[in-house]
DNA sequence: CACTCCCGCCAATTA
DNA sequence: TAATTGGCGGGAGTG
């Protein structure tokens, strides 16, 4: 602020303008400046800072964020007052962006703008996620601090956390070495292992997360004390120059950061509430439970969480408990850690530049390869075995037979789901209680940890993944709207069971032969296009993606990431291979989860219920709103996840009909669409029926879109385009299905104006490309679902899917998209095709996409970002990506 | 009012 | 001793 003021006020006083500065600087006299890089204060003096300079920097870095925020605000408003907010706001923004933004921003430093999270994003934007092997960028704290316009102290906060994850290492005084995310998966793996040792017992012992967590505290005291810290430290040290780093004592921030991450990795639900984390951390460290200490710990956790959020590893959520909402964070980073990063790298060229985005892209490929993919943790990459195993299981079930190779994927998916379900059910039998208990504990509808529980504790890959997803449901998204409708969830189950096993009523059925998965569940439908390996993976991912990335920073497109990023990577020399690995992993995980969640979800009993009780949750499901907030922001992704999750919840929590938010859905759509876009391959759609809340709107999400992205460079646009379409129910009524390829146009329904705007911006390009809104339609099948009213009859839903399936599937199977039915996006569909075999690998392909991807976002989002890039010498691409990420977020 | 978490004092550590 | 690091908690911004 001071700086700004100065600039404004007195543009240059060489002297420090104000005493304040001096005081702040404390001892910094001009003299010192020369010696040391100078502290922040120095810079200000120089005036170099002129507002513009700072502004530029900030703007470039932050603007996206800023925008996002604004957008968010808008979004909210829109909900209430769609019209007003939309136009005016959008206009204003635009204007601002164009010319005057700087000034405005400058003027208002608002606290948020100075947040550590934003600062961290800016910081991260300066370095490639996956720096080339050779490149090593050293980070000068002073320099960075000055560039970012913050005190060095703040940089320490960031660097310490990054260091705990080995993203950077301290080389010397004032010098850090940027490693990027190459080792992130390894680091996380180590942390996970360490965490399991420390906390694992607790976790395993208790089904309930909460209980576990609580217990943790107790147990931790017992177990933890001794070794914990050490190991962690060790991890961190390996790469870097340990010498200097170690010296300092524990550096609580680093340790806390690692422990905090461990909690996530160990947690089945992947959700950790701040208070629990604080308790655990305190306990470990010390017995004292001073209240003040607790507060301090929480403050620190916020600091850490902000950085982790910027890295796209966690996102803020709220867990509803008995008492009420509790702040919590959900792990959205990779869950599984391939043992070999290398493999990953090989497969997935792309990296995700964005922290947020990580998930994405690579995963798909991998998944495709393995089939099951992500489900199995390590195996995913390598193991065919698991897949097979799953298949076998599946095979037993009805669905499997149909599937073919490609289908196999789908089938696998299904099978997996089925398996999971079975396991779950079995487990549930036991656990059910637990889950229920949890739920109960959770109380009201909101929180639901249970899902996590569901997943099998054991090894089953599936289980693992699923669990996390399960979590989603529990957690409430930041967004208010979230509440997921329980009812729908049942659907998820369907897929697994029904499809595979078939069963029931139909709910989820897979279409025979077809790649699609139908979730009968009332409100949500997931259609999966191309079956191939990719498909499954995609599907899942899509869902996951939706949840995850949604917008987010990932802008990069986390989910889709694979493609996009890969392309990005390509474009950017730096990362290609390596980068992606992590991303892939993440994606894998996420994806797997999502899908799983969908599938797994329901406990047998519930599903039917859900269906039966349309009113309750089901409707809600529709709402899934995605977070519209910031695309970039983590929240969005979550929302998506939530969506996926919701169904489950619904089932479980039928009660919670409340959840649904009408408003939200749209946003969610957006995110989804993005994600979808990302995933090009198969046409997968999620259809969300409108629930009461949504009343009027129907949403179709294409799970995969992006095909174009993948295949066509030109398509870039498409990739961007969002698959989701929102359609007013009324409209739908007339039409069987609506799919707009690009999310923008059509539907964007009004309400969203703001959203739509954002979306449009982002997507606009894509939309253009894809423009033709596709429609999915087709067959009646869709229609029914769409039909506004659809009660949740379980049966019905299934039917539709069936109908669809044939068409879709076929088309899908071939290329996925081909069939008219499916997707609208010409691009995606056409191109998609599947590369199944190659798909993943081809970096070459990706690049184009990525680029496109970037461009679009960039173009949409911010030109500015690009400009800024200048600074980034390093990999343009990388930097660009980052920017994009940021930008992307902003647009959203 | 509760949640966040910025800010920067000041101590520990290092150079 | 000066500078670098980073623990820590007051208290302000937000919703």
From TrEMBL:
> Do the record's keywords include Nucleus?
yes
What is the protein's name according to its record?
Transcription factor E2F7
Alphabetically sorted, this entry's keywords are: Activator, Cell cycle, DNA-binding, Nucleus, Repressor, Transcription, Transcription regulation
Please name the SMART domains in this protein's record.
E2F_TDP
Domain E2F/DP family winged-helix DNA-binding stretches: 111-180, 248-333
Q: Where is the composition biased (Polar residues)?
A: 81-90, 359-385, 871-892
The cross-references to InterPro entries, in alphabetical order and at most eight, read: E2F (IPR015633), E2F_WHTH_DNA-bd_dom (IPR003316), WH-like_DNA-bd_sf (IPR036388), WH_DNA-bd_sf (IPR036390)
Compartments, as annotated in UniProt? Nucleus
- What are the boundaries of the region Disordered? 1-92, 222-247, 342-409, 548-583, 599-619, 632-676, 859-892
Instruction: Read off the Pfam families from this record.
Output: WHD_E2F_TDP (PF02319)
Q: Identify the coding gene.
A: E2f7
Q: Name one GO molecular function term.
A: RNA polymerase II cis-regulatory region sequence-specific DNA binding
Instruction: Please verify whether the record's keywords include Nucleus.
Output: yes
Per the record, the similarity remark reads: Belongs to the E2F/DP family.
Compositional bias (Basic and acidic residues) at which positions?
Answer: 65-77, 222-232, 640-663
Q: Where are the transmembrane segments?
A: none
Per the UniProt entry, what is one GO biological process? sprouting angiogenesis
- An example Gene Ontology CC term for this record: RNA polymerase II transcription regulator complex
Say which domain of life the source belongs to.
Eukaryota
């Amino acid at each position: 602020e001071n700086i700004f003021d100065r600039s404004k006020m007195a543009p240059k006083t060489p002297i420090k303008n104000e005493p304040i500065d001096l005081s702040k600087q404390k001892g910094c006299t001009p003299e010192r400046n020369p010696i040391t890089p100078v502290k922040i204060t120095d810079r200000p003096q120089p005036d170099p800072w002129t507002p513009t300079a700072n502004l530029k920097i900030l703007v470039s870095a932050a603007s996206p964020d800023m925008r996002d925020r604004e957008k968010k605000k808008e979004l909210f408003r829109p909900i209430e007052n769609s019209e007003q907010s939309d136009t005016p706001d959008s206009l204003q923004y635009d204007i601002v962006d164009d010319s005057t933004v700087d000034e405005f921003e400058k003027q208002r430093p608002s606290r948020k703008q100075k947040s550590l999270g934003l600062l961290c994003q800016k910081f991260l934007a300066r370095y490639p996620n996956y720096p080339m092997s050779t490149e090593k960028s050293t980070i000068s704290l002073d320099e960075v601090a000055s560039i970012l316009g913050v005190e060095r102290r703040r940089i320490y906060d960031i660097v310490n956390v990054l260091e705990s994850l080995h993203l950077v290492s301290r080389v010397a005084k004032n010098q850090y070495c940027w490693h990027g995310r190459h080792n992130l998966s390894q680091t996380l793996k180590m942390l996970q292992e360490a965490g399991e040792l420390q906390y694992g017992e607790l976790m395993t012992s208790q089904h309930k997360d909460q209980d576990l967590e609580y217990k943790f505290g107790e147990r931790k005291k017992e177990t933890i004390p001794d070794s914990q810290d050490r190991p962690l430290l060790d991890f961190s040290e390996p790469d870097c120059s340990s010498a200097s780093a170690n010296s300092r004592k524990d550096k609580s921030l680093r340790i806390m950061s690692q422990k905090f991450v461990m909690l996530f990795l160990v947690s089945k639900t992947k959700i950790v509430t701040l208070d629990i984390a604080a308790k655990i951390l305190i306990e470990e460290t010390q017995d004292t439970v001073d209240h003040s200490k607790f507060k301090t710990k929480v403050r620190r956790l916020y600091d850490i969480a902000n950085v982790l959020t910027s890295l796209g590893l966690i996102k803020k959520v709220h867990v509803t408990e008995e008492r009420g909402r509790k702040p919590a964070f959900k792990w959205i980073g990779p869950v599984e850690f391939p043992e070999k990063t290398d493999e990953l790298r090989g497969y997935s060229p792309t990296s995700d530049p964005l922290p947020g985005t990580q998930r994405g892209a690579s995963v798909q490929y991998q998944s495709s390869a393995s089939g099951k993919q992500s489900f199995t943790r390590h195996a995913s990459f390598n193991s065919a075995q698991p897949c097979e195993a799953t298949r076998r299981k599946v095979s037993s079930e009805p669905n499997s037979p149909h599937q073919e190779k490609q289908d196999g994927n789908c089938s696998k998916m299904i099978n997996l789901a089925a398996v999971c379900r079975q396991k779950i059910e079995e487990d549930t039998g036991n656990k059910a209680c637990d889950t229920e208990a949890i739920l109960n504990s959770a109380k009201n509808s909101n929180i639901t940890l249970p899902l996590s529980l569901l997943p099998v504790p054991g090894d089953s890959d599936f289980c693992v993944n699923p669990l996390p997803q399960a979590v989603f449901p529990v957690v409430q998204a930041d967004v208010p709207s979230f509440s997921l409708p329980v009812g729908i969830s049942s659907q998820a189950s369907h897929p697994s069971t029904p499809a595979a096993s078939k069963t029931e009523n139909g709910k989820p059925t897979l279409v025979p032969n077809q790649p699609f998965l139908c979730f009968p569940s009332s409100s949500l439908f997931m259609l999966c296009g191309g079956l191939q390996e990719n498909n499954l993976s995609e599907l899942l991912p899509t869902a996951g993606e939706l949840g995850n990335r949604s917008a987010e920073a990932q802008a990069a497109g986390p989910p889709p990431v694979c493609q996009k990023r890969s392309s990005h990577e390509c474009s950017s020399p730096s990362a290609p291979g390596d980068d992606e690995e992590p991303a892939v992993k993440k994606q894998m995980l996420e994806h797997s989860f999502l899908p799983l969640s969908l599938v797994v979800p329901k406990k047998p009993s519930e599903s039917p219920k859900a269906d039966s009780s349309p009113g309750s949750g089901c409707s809600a499901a529709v709402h899934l709103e995605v977070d519209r907030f910031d695309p970039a922001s983590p929240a969005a992704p979550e929302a998506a996840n939530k969506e996926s999750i919701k169904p489950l919840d619904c089932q479980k929590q039928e009660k919670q009909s409340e959840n649904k938010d009408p408003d939200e859905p749209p946003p969610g759509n957006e995110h989804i669409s993005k994600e979808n876009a990302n995933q090009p391959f198969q046409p997968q759609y999620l259809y969300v029926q409108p629930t009461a809340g949504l009343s009027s709107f129907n949403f179709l999400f294409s799970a995969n879109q992006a095909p174009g992205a993948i295949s066509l460079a030109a398509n870039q646009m498409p990739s961007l385009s969002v698959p989701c379409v929102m359609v007013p129910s009324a409209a739908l009524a007339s039409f069987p299905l609506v799919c707009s390829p690009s999310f923008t146009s059509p539907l964007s329904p009004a309400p969203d104006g703001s959203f739509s705007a954002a979306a449009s911006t982002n997507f606009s390009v894509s939309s253009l490309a894809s423009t033709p809104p596709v429609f999915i339609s087709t067959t009646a099948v869709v229609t029914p679902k769409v039909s506004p009213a659809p009660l949740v009859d379980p049966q019905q839903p299934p039917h539709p899917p069936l109908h669809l399936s044939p068409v879709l599937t076929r088309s899908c199977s071939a290329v996925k998209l081909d069939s008219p039915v499916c997707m609208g996006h010409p691009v995606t569909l056409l191109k998609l095709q599947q590369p199944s075999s190659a798909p993943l690998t081809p970096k070459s392909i990706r690049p184009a996409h990525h680029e496109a991807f970037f461009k679009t976002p960039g173009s949409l989002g911010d030109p500015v970002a690009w400009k800024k890039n200048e600074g980034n010498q390093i990999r343009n691409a990388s930097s660009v990506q980052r920017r994009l990420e940021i930008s992307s977020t902003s647009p959203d």
